[in-house]
Structures are given as C-alpha cells and as structure tokens.
Write a structure and sequence with these properties.
- About 45% of the residues lie in helices and about 10% in strands.
- It has 48 helices and 24 strands.
- Strands 1, 2, 3, 4, 5 and 6 form a six-stranded antiparallel sheet that branches. A five-stranded mixed sheet has the order 10-11-9-12-13, with helices on one face.
- Helix 10 crosses helix 12 and helix 21 crosses helix 30.
Length: about 1300
C-alpha cells in the first residue's frame, strides 16, 4: 500500500534489493529451533510451570519429521544495501516461519509460494517473495542424526506405553494446548493405543538404509515494491532451471545478477519487460495521479471470503479493531491482508501489521492495541481449540472455511447494500461469483506441475495458480528434442516420411502444436498467461476504484473542517497533542443522518488522525502521495458537480464513473511495453563455477553477485538524484528543524493511541518481550489519559470552558462513540497479560471471580455469626426523605445480570461500565475490584498492566476525573429494560395538614414514556413501582379526589429516584391541593430537576455539568399568589429580559439535532420558562389582593375577558371589526372554554399555564394579546403602570413571540390530557 513511497526518494530505482537462500546449514547440523524453544518457555511461563526445563527445545514425544529445526540464511546477495540494511533474523523467520521441515520420498513435496512484508519503525515497507521447495539431503551426518532421533523417539514411546501413563498423558495434553495456539507448529503425535502407535512408526518413520531424506529450501527476492506476479514467475523459473533435465542457457548467477543490478524499477506510469530463465516477464507501475501499486489479487481475496464477509472485515479494519486472519496457507494470509489494506486508500493502517505471524511471536496476540495479523492454522484444527487472549473487540477471519466472527455492536458502512451491489457487478463482469468463496484447499504452486492438454479449461482462480510455463513455454528436455528436429534435415525428412505412411510421432507432434500455438499467441500480442495477468490487473483496479470513489464521496468536503491553527511546522509538531485539528462536531452535523453511526466512530481512529495530520503538514512539506491523489480526485469531482453541489452531502449512493478509463490505462501499459531491461548475459566468473547438478540449487559465486556494475545509466541517475537531494537537504537544514528532532516529534505526534507498528523480529529474548510489554503498558496509560481528557472537554464544550457557560457542545452520537471507545480500552487493559482466559470479556470474567469470592466470604461471615434480623424502624413523618443508595459493586453487577436483554459477556461488561459511569462510581468500583491483590495475581502475569502499581493508580485517577460531568449513557442506551422507581411525597411540615384523608395519586413521565396513574395508599408518603425505562424524568402529575374531612393538602415537593442508576429528581410544588384553597387545584403538573444529595456533594461527586432547566421554584409560586402579596417583585426590565431569554432557549432547542434536544416541557413550563415569564408579565400591575375578599388570579381576568367578548359578539359589536380579528376572538373564546370544560381539576394557575402552552403550540399567542389589551376589563383589573397596558411593550412582546412561529412545538401528553379542541 505504501509502495508508492517505498521505492522513491533515497532508495535507488532497483527492482530487487536482495536475493536470499535459506535452508539447512550442513556444518552445524540439526539444531532444535530456538524460537520454538522460546515459545515453549513462554507457554510454560503462562501455565506457571518451571520454564527452565521447557527451554531446551527438545521434544522427544513428537515425531522427528514433524519437529521444527533451525533454518539459516545460507547466502544473501549483495552483502548489504545502504538504504535497506539486511535484517538476517527477520528474513530467516519470515522465509521459513515453521523452520526447516523434512520429508521422505513417500511424502508430498510440492513447491510452495508465499510472500511477506517487513514494516520498519517509520512505517515504510519492504516486500519478500519466497519459493520453497524440497531438496535431497546428501549429508550423511544429518541422515544419521535423523536416524538417532527416531530411535530416541521410539524408545520414549515404548516407555510411554507402560502402565505409568498418567504423567505422560498430562504432559502431552499440555503440549497440545500449547500447540492449539501455535498454529504454525505441526500436530504432535498422540496415539491412543500401542497398536496404533506401532502403525504410525511403520508408516511415518525414517530408516536411512531404506528412505531418501528431503529438506526444505527457500529462494527469496526482497523488493521495495509489491511486484508479486513478476517476482513469483522469476523464482518459479529459477527453480525450474535446477529441476530440468538439461542445464539452463546461462549459469544461474547471470539471472540473479540481472534481477539485482540490471533490472530497474519501472518509472511511474510505465511498464517494463525483463527476462527470466525461459521467458520474458512484464510488470507495470501506476502513474503519479493513479491509485498506488497493488499486485496482490483482489479477485482471490473476494473469492476466498465472499463479498459480504470481505466488506464486514473491511469495516472492522476502518474502525481499527483487532483483526486476526487464520489459514493453512501463508499466501492466503498475505493476499487477504494486503487486499484489505490496499482498499483503505486514502487512509493507511497505523497499527501492528504482521500478515504472517511466526510461532515465536504468538505473545503478540496479547497486544492490547489494534492489530492486523495472520496466524497459520493446522489441518483439522478446530476454531474452538484456539485460545486467544482477547476477543471482545476481535474480528476473527477463518479464510479456509469462509467464516468470520465479528465484534459486537459495530456500525455498518454507509450505503452498504448499494456498495455491495456495485462491487458484485464488477466481479460478475470478470466471471467471478460475488457470493461463493473458493473451495477450501491448500494451493499448488507455480512450477510444481508441467502443463498437459487436459488442463486447458480452468477457473480464473486456478489458472492464476498454474505453472507460468504451461502456455507453450517448454521444459528443457522437450526444447532440446525440438531443436534437434529443426536443425537436422535428415531427421526432418524421416519425420515427413513416417507421417505420409500414416505413422505419427506423437511426442514431436505435441511439441509442434505447442510451438504453433505459441507463435499464434505471440502474433496476437499476448500469451494466455499475460492475458490472465491483464485481466487480473483490470479487475484489481476496478474494484479499488469503487472503494476509492466511496471515500471521495463521503469526504468530499473534509478540507472545510480542517483547523489550521499553527503558524509553522515546528510549533505544530511541539503542540500536536494539545491541538484541535479537525472540527468533528461541525463535520458530523453536515453529514447525512444514515452516515453518522459509522462516521462518528471512524473520525476517532488513528488512521483518520494521521490523514488530517498529513493534510496540515502539506502546508510546509511536499504532500504525502496518497493525499495528493485523493485531493486531486476531490477537486475533479467538484468541477463536475458545480451545478449539483448539495448532492455531495446527500445520502444518495453515487456509483464510480471512471472504471473504464482506469482499466484502459493499465491495458495500454501492458500491451505497449515502455522499457525493456538488459538481457541476462555471461559474467566474468572463475572456471568451474556455476556447475549444474540436477535437483540441487548450487552455491552461487558471491564475489560476482556482491558488487553491481560500475557504469549503468539508471544507477547513475539514482545516484545523481540522491546527490541533489542531499545538497537540497543541507541547504534547508538551517531553515527547518533538525531532522532527528523532527522525526522524534513526528513519531510522538503519530503514536497517539498506538504503540508498535511491527514487532522487532531480530531479538526475541525474554528481556525484549518484557520491554515490549512495558511499551504496551505506557501506551495504554497514555491512551487512557487522552480518552478521558477528550471526554471531559467534549462534554463541557470549548465555549463552556472558556466563557464559563454550561451549554453542552457534544452530540449524543459523539458521546456514545467516546464511551464505546472507553469500553474498548478497558477491555484491552483487562486482556493484557491475562493468565487464563474465560469467556470473551476479560473484564466481566474478573468481575465474576470477584463476585464469587465476595459471596463466599459473606456466607462464611453469616455462618460464623448469625445475626437476628432487626426490622428497620419507620422514620417519623417529620423526617420523610429518600433513604440513601448504598454504593455496591456487587449490587450493580446483579442489576446487569438480571437484564434479560443482554445476551453476552461483552455486552454485560459494557453495560456495567455505562452504569458505573452514569452513577459516577467507575473509578471507585475498579479500585475496589483491584484491591483483591491475591485474585489479580492469580489472573494476571507479572508484566500485565493491572500489576504495574504506579500506572494502575494513574489510570484510576484519570477515570476519577470523569465524575465531574453527568452522563446518561446507561439510561439512554437500554431503553426497554424494567427499572424500579421510588417516589416520596414531602409535605410542608410547619402546617398541620401533612396528611390528607383523600385518596392521592401520582403519574411519573419521562422522555421515553409515563408510568400511568398510580393510586397511593392513605397516610403513605412513599411508594415503589417497576416500569419500563422512562428515560430522563420530566414531569410528575400529583392529585387527589378531595374526599374526607381533611381534603386539603400542602405539598412541598415530590422526589423520584431511579433505583438502578441512583439518579434522583426533585419536583418542586409549594402549593395547596384542595377545593376552596389557593387556586382550587386538585391536580398539579410538576416539572423536575436532577437533584444532588448532600451525601454526594460531601463525597466529591458534586462537581458536575450545570443542571437542567429547573421547575418553577416554590418561592416564585407562593409569591405570585400569596395572600399578603409580599415577596420578590421583578422590575419591568427584568420581566422583559426573562421573556427574551425564555424564547431564546426554545429557539436554541430547535436548532440542535433532533436526538440531542432534551425536554421541551422544561422550556415551556419550568423555571425561567415561557409560562413563568408570561406569568410575571401578566402579574405586573395586577390588582390581585383584595381586602376581606378572596385572591384574584390572572385566569379570572381571562375569563372576564371571554365573557365580555362573547356578550359583545351576541350584541353584534364585533361584527363591525375586521374579519381576522373576529376569527381570532372566536378562537380565543373556544380555547378558554375548552380548558374550563376539561374534567381535570388543574386550578386557575394550571389553566393559565395550559392556555399559554396551547397558544404557543398553535402559534396564536401574538394574535390573542391585542384582544386582551383592547378589552375594557383591563382597566378594572390592572393599574395604569402595568406592562399589559403599555402599547409599545405589548407590541415588542408580540414581535418576540412571533419568532416561535417557524418551529413545530409539541406538548407532552401529561400537559394536554383530556383537552378537546
């Protein structure tokens, strides 16, 4: 994927950097594989056994032919390349991931091909292509050593068949458990009976007098760019040259020298032809404006996984989950890994990337970071036997069985259905079914089978894997026969004669047919192999274009949201962590609704952060190649979409429009070769070198291959380019940062949230593994710090932090994404260094262990000291309040365990994290969980994050900081669960009417529904009830039936608590309920506020985001309708300001995304609400208190106005007024009469509140106000100074209220129940 950059710049333009031969070193003989020994040491450490005995590497139980032995790099040419130093250990390990394998003449010995990749610290990549074959062992020492090993193996088994089998069987089971993860180690022999074991020795044994021993050998080409097909064909031809009956035309050194020194990399946008041993090889490289080079077959990746599966795995990759590929075939692992990362354009995978994971690196599966790794499976290994350290966030891809396991709850790719349909059409055009994968089997390798006429018609996938020489490319022996016929006239005439007499020489005829077919194909331009390659290349590019087109559509406007805040590169790099580089909230608000679940997760990934970093750095540096291509595409799309700019932001699927032209560019390059490399030629070699011996790859002459040509035009060109670049760098060095310092900053800037791109393969001592784990611990702590900081800043909002306002600036979607990512981080921390894995969630497993220990302890305590149960004394009525909630980790676990909606351990762990976060006890709970040190020691290895004391303390401190903000992440996600609620009614104590003889009732409403009316037993002020989650609570309706002698009830407030989350809401009242007192109300609608208990404030949990809008306070309610009229009276300026603020809040409410709006009821009826502000307006100058008379309410004024309007209408006075005014008058009277005729006893203030709400909903308030102002009743009931009698003020108020007309105001059912309009 980064091939575009790998071969440019400082690296000279050579096609290949190294040619490597790996195999057995006959001088050192048979050595047990040290890496296998290290693995056994790690496994013994994991199982808590004595690791010293495991480290010998000897395993006498296993058949010697199936053991791993150390392979070595026998030779590599050249010795070293300055710009790409040779890493011997890494190359040896990746060329032969299993080490050496031995076979006898009875075993299958087909050659195999695989590729590998080495990712350096800076992210640049080197590709390796390996052809592995079996060569006869000629060393007598090695044959006798194998014989000895077999004798020892037989003796071990003979002793194991005696009655004392218990110990050996247990050890073999442990070795098989080790093997279950070691997918690359072969199956240990574990026969059940002595007879079957004897048969096994006879069938699979080795006897030097009877058997021929073969050992694996690997030829490897290391290249800067992924020219997979060309490298594969070259290696196949080199192998064919040593197995053919006749020697190749030139010594092998000539071909190796040619590929190392005389074949250049194709220039961008050009094709190149070079010559192998038997036939020419063509490769091409995309131009600078095209997608970068990718030579691995996407057709194969799609057919192996199936289209739907591949898209799912691709989505997991985009969201940076842990992806583990699993297959018997190394090349399949590489094909799928490279295929998926290729499709990420313009993004790049930023984390651990090891498509082939050697057995010795299995501890890397413990890495608590995102990774993309490939693990080799054994034939017949069951997936269930594969124990993986962490699976909560793992995407497991079983390539051979076309089966994937996905993580829970991850969002789908936008327009997934249409996307799959478009890709399916492309595949069908090339004859590949999008639904079925290839049959599960191990593939034969090129060069393994000669061509036969009966194998002409094959599927595309198989034809790609056939021997490259099958299309008329003849083997040495056949070629010699044909040359003999063509050069000898006598033999030619003899052949003609036999033909005329009806006798044919079949072999020669076959040869002639092949030659004719070959020449015909040459005249047509392409051989069948080249046709295949062209078809494959065209399919590759078209599939990639469809993916690239999706990203171009989705991120068409990304530049508008990039924040360019730094004046220069140095200040940007030094402050990278503190800087906000991308306006995520604005970007998401600009996207189509269906895209949001995916995009909100994706813009949090490291690959997106790096993409934005590259964009910002392109101000000061040359653009990164992928970014350059992507930006050019966006510019081009903008040109085409000038008239249709809005379509870029719609969710309508846009198909890729450049499929044909992208395929044409490749076709033109392959049909018309731009450059041909120098042919292989004889070298200046010593006599006797390059000697040919059939079946054996010779020792090549190092002095010839270690030095390249002195005069070569393109090597000069690259050297000149290098000199120019060096000169340019020296010139700019004093202007810019010191390059080392810059690299350090860059590494730090880009390692936010990631730790290692690639494990170091060279040194795998226990000390290095410990160091690696230490890096993981540091990385996890840093990631925790970044995540908690981001959650706090986003929740509080930038404006809130800077200006002291409490307006939250985070959308529910973003908040959900951040919390999901915190859950993922906690799972990764709990998976790190786990000793024994139980279930898919390491955190939930730990919690269950803790729960069982605590419950056992509790049972023991109860058994030792049985305590008689003392009933709890009922508090006297004078101290009614909510009993405090006990903070209990176990209790919270039980709540989660009782939720039948959650089916998996991963789901339970996430629900528990969300609940703890909402209750502000996450840090406290985890501290309690980790306080049982004996349990932690049992569950975790000594290097685990949870056993690093200092880091653990810092981690808990970072989580503690999350208590400063309010989350509703449990309540808002689990909307269908049953929740117990507790309701306490608190009367005003100083008056005697604390209790009532009537029958009270209550109804609790929230954002998700209401509880329905619930009767409260007489003389009881506290009830509990179970109800489906109501969400955030908004209103409580409280009333009674006015029965009995003491029917009047003075209520201070109602408290309601969610018994699972502990959230408590206070609903202030401060009014009477009863006939003939206050405003005569038997029912009140109370507006709630989230309430913080004094206990919470003391415990430091009081720091929180500003409260929701509150319900009207008791003081205001009483002052408005108080008998004496005393109390606070706002000025006219304050009243007008309150109205403006209330209307403003409603407008802001509608400008938020729909899902983020919260409760409109609070803004209409709560404290500082529209109703409260208008009540103040109508009370200004109102003659409410009368001496020796009952209190007059605003509603009395409204009713008198209606009586006047209706009588005036009957007398015909209103008929003279303008038509609209008459209609308005009728509507006003209609609404007031409907409210008066409702069966609900909501009192006069309640009726006024309802009138304001209905008027706001139906946009009638501005029309009703002039009617009240014009009504003569106003002079009797209002003083001259009243705001309602000031025309200017009223007109201003009308203007303010008209701004609400564009918004669709909906009212909660609890407000408008039983109103018939």
């Amino acid at each position: 994927m980064s091939g575009g950059s790998a071969g440019s710049g400082a690296a000279p333009c050579r096609f290949a950097h190294y040619f490597v031969i790996c195999g057995i070193d006959t001088e050192t003989g048979l050595e047990p594989d040290q890496l296998a020994a290290l693995y056994q040491w790690l496994e013994a450490d994991r199982q808590g056994k004595d690791s010293a005995t495991a480290a010998t590497g000897e395993n006498f139980e296993q058949s010697p032919l199936k053991r791993t032995f150390k392979s070595k790099v026998l030779a590599h040419y050249p010795e070293n390349v300055e710009w790409n130093p040779f890493d011997q250990d890494a190359v040896n390990m990746l060329c032969m991931p299993k080490g050496l394998s031995f076979r006898t003449q009875t075993d299958q010995r087909d050659p195999q091909f695989h590729s590998f990749i080495i990712t350096k610290e800076d992210g640049s990549r080197t590709y390796g292509f390996v052809h592995t074959f079996y060569e006869e062992v000629t060393s007598s020492q090695i044959c006798s050593a194998m014989q000895t090993l077999y004798q020892m193996h037989n003796a071990e088994h003979a002793s194991a068949n005696h009655p004392t089998t218990s110990s050996s069987s247990s050890s073999s089971s442990s070795s098989s458990s080790m093997d279950s993860l070691a997918g690359s180690l072969d199956e240990a022999d574990s026969p059940n009976s002595s007879s079957s074991s004897l048969l096994a020795y006879k069938a699979g044994g080795y006897d030097s007098s009877r058997d021929t021993l073969y050992v694996s050998k690997a030829l490897c080409l290391i290249t800067p760019m992924p020219f997979m097909h060309a490298s594969r064909r070259l290696l196949s031809q080199l192998h064919r040259a040593v197995t053919a009956a006749t020697a190749p035309p030139l010594p092998l050194e000539s071909y190796v020298y040619n590929i190392l020194y005389e074949v250049p990399l194709p220039a961008p946008g050009r094709s190149l032809k070079f010559h192998g041993v038997y036939e020419p090889i063509v490769c091409q490289r995309p131009g600078l404006g095209e997608l970068p080079l990718a030579d691995f077959s996407l057709a194969e990746a799609f057919s192996l996984l199936g289209l739907e599966n591949l898209i799912q795995v691709f989505t997991c990759t985009l969201l940076e989950m842990q992806i583990l590929l699993y297959s018997q075939d190394y090349q399949r692992l590489m094909t799928v890994a490279e295929g998926i990362t290729t499709l990420l354009f313009p993004f790049q995978w930023q984390h651990v990337y090891v498509p082939i994971l050697p057995a010795s690196l299995l501890h890397f599966l413990d890495a608590p970071v995102p990774y993309l790794m490939g693990l080799q499976s054994k034939e017949g290994t069951d997936r269930s036997k594969l124990e993986l350290p962490q699976e909560a966030n793992l995407c497991f891809v079983d390539i051979d069985n076309h089966y994937i396991e996905l993580p829970e709850d991850f969002p789908h790719l936008p327009n997934k259905t249409e996307f799959i349909q478009e890709l399916g059409e492309v595949l069908l055009r090339f004859g590949i079914s999008p639904n079925t994968g290839a049959p599960p089997r191990t593939r034969a390798c090129p060069g393994s089978t000669p061509s036969t006429p009966g194998r002409e018609h094959k599927t595309v996938a198989l034809r790609q894997l056939e021997d490259d020489g099958r299309n008329g490319n003849l083997a040495g022996e056949e070629l010699a026969v044909l040359e003999l016929l063509q050069e000898n006239a006598t033999l030619e005439r003899l052949h003609e004669l036999t033909k005329r007499t009806g006798v044919t020489v079949a072999h020669v005829e076959t040869l002639r047919g092949k030659i004719k077919a070959q020449s015909a194909e040459c005249q047509g331009g392409l051989t069948a192999a080249e046709e295949d390659e062209l078809k494959n290349a065209k399919l590759n590019i078209q599939l990639r274009e469809v993916f690239a087109s999706r990203f171009t559509t989705m991120f068409a406007d990304y530049e508008a949201f990039v924040i360019q805040s730094a004046p220069d590169l140095e200040s940007w790099l030094t402050n990278r962590e503190q800087m906000h580089n991308f306006d995520k909230a604005s970007f998401l608000s600009d996207q189509p609704e269906p895209y949001l679940p995916f995009l909100s997760h994706f813009i949090e990934t490291q690959m997106f952060a790096t993409f934005i970093d590259n964009k910002i750095m392109s101000q000061w540096e040359e653009k990164e190649p992928l970014l350059r291509v992507f930006d050019a595409r966006i510019d081009k799309a903008r040109l085409y979409n000038v008239q249709r700019a809005p379509s870029l932001r719609s969710s309508i699927y846009q198909r890729c429009s450049i499929l044909k032209e992208s395929a044409q560019a490749i076709e033109q390059r392959l049909m018309k070769i731009d450059h041909t490399a120098i042919h292989p030629h004889l070298l200046d070699m010593k006599i006797g070198q390059g000697k040919y011996e059939q079946g054996f790859f010779p020792k090549l002459q190092a002095d010839v291959l270690n030095t390249g040509p002195i005069n070569n035009k393109w090597s000069h060109r690259s050297a000149r380019a290098q000199r120019t670049k060096d000169h340019h760098r020296q010139q700019t060095e004093h202007l810019s940062l010191d390059s080392d310092l810059k690299e350090k900053y860059m590494q730090e800037a880009r390692s936010l949230g990631k730790n290692l791109r690639q494990p170091k393969l060279s040194d795998l001592s226990p000390a290095v593994i410990a160091q690696t784990n230490w890096k993981f611990v540091e990385g996890l702590l840093k990631e925790c710090r970044m995540k908690t900081k981001r959650m706090l800043v986003e929740k509080m909002g930038w404006e809130a932090v800077e200006l002291g306002h409490g307006e939250a600036n985070i959308t529910g979607l973003e908040e959900n994404t951040l919390i999901a990512s915190l859950c993922d981080l906690l799972e990764r921390i709990w998976s790190h260094g786990l000793q024994v894995k139980q279930g898919k969630s390491a955190l939930w497993s730990h919690l269950l262990h803790y729960q069982s220990r605590e419950e056992r302890l509790l049972e023991q305590q109860q058994a030792e000291s049985p305590v008689s149960h003392v009933p709890e004394r009922r508090k006297s009525d004078c101290s009614i309040a909510l009993p405090s909630v006990r903070v209990s980790l176990i209790q919270d676990m039980r709540h989660i365990q009782s939720m039948s909606e959650i089916k998996t351990d991963v789901g339970r762990a996430r629900a528990w994290i969300r609940l703890s976060l909402e209750k502000k006890v996450l840090s406290q709970h985890l501290k309690q969980l980790l306080s049982q040190q004996a349990l932690t020691k049992n569950l975790y290895k000594r290097y685990a994050f949870l056993r690093c004391e200092e880091e653990k303390e810092q981690f808990l401190f970072h989580l503690l900081s999350l208590n400063t903000v309010d989350y509703f992440c449990f309540t808002s996600v689990f909307t269908t669960i049953m929740i117990p609620y507790r309701v306490v009614i608190i009367p005003i104590k100083k008056l005697t009417n604390a209790m009532t003889t009537s029958n009270p009732w209550v109804c609790v409403s929230g954002e998700l529904g209401d509880s329905g009316i619930m009767q409260i037993p007489k003389n009881v002020l506290e009830i509990t009830f179970d109800c489906q989650n109501l969400g955030k609570l908004t209103t409580v309706q409280l009333g009674h039936d006015n029965a009995g002698l003491l029917a009047k009830w003075l209520v201070d407030c109602v408290m309601v608590r969610n018994e699972i989350t502990g959230h408590t809401y206070r609903f202030p009242c401060g009014r009477w309920l009863g006939k003939g007192i206050d405003d005569g109300s038997l029912e009140r609608v109370l507006i709630g506020e989230l309430w913080m208990s004094s206990g919470e404030e003391d415990s430091g949990r009081c720091c929180r985001t500003p409260p929701l809008q509150r319900s009207p306070s008791q003081t205001r309610r009483i002052s408005i309708t108080s008998l004496s009229g005393r109390g606070y009276k706002p000025t006219s300026a304050q009243i007008q300001e309150a109205i403006g603020e209330a209307v403003n809040n409603i407008i802001k409410h509608f400008h938020k995304p729909e899902k983020e709006r919260g409760s409109l009821t609070v803004l209409l009826c709560g404290e500082s609400s529209l109703v409260a502000a208008l009540e103040q307006f109508f009370h200004h100058g109102f003659k409410s208190s009368r001496l020796f008379q009952k209190t007059v309410f605003v509603w009395d004024f409204v009713e008198k106005a209606v009586v006047y309007m209706e009588s005036a209408d009957q007398m015909g006075d209103l008929q003279e007024t303008a038509e609209p005014l008459g209609m308005t008058c009728q509507s006003f009277c209609h609404y007031v009469n409907a409210i008066n005729s409702t069966p609900r006893n909501i009192g006069k203030d309640g009726k006024f509140q309802l009138l304001v709400c209905l008027g706001a909903r139906d946009h009638l308030l501005p029309q009703w106000l002039p009617l009240l102002v014009e009504c003569p009743v106003i002079q009797q009931m209002y003083e001259d100074i009243a705001l309602l009698r000031d025309r200017t003020t009223v007109n201003t108020l009308i203007g303010v209220l008209e701004t609400l007309h564009e918004f669709p105001i909906t009212l909660e059912a609890s407000l408008i129940k039983c109103i018939d309009l």
